[in-house]
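Progress report, Aim 2. The chain analyzed during this reporting quarter is listed below.
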Amino acid sequence: MQLREAGGLQLLPTEPIVVPASGERSVAVTVRLPAQAVQTAAADPARVLPLQLAVVAEQAPDLQRQQASRFLLPR
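Predicted structure tokens for the chain:
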């Protein structure tokens, strides 16, 4: 899984998630904004960072699914 258009956000865990061919798997991930990036991100009055999650096949990078989401900063 990859995090694209992240605006300083980091995706945890960082190790690859293995899913068998034709399989599916639910995985909990954490999206973190490092402290040094909070001030820059907090300048947005909406306090929302858009992000793009992508699941990419390791041996066939053209095979992927993307999902738009957002990270809400605390007020």
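The first strand starts at residue 2 and ends at 4. Residues 47 and 75 are 8 Å apart (CA to CA). These observations will guide the mutagenesis work planned for the next reporting period.
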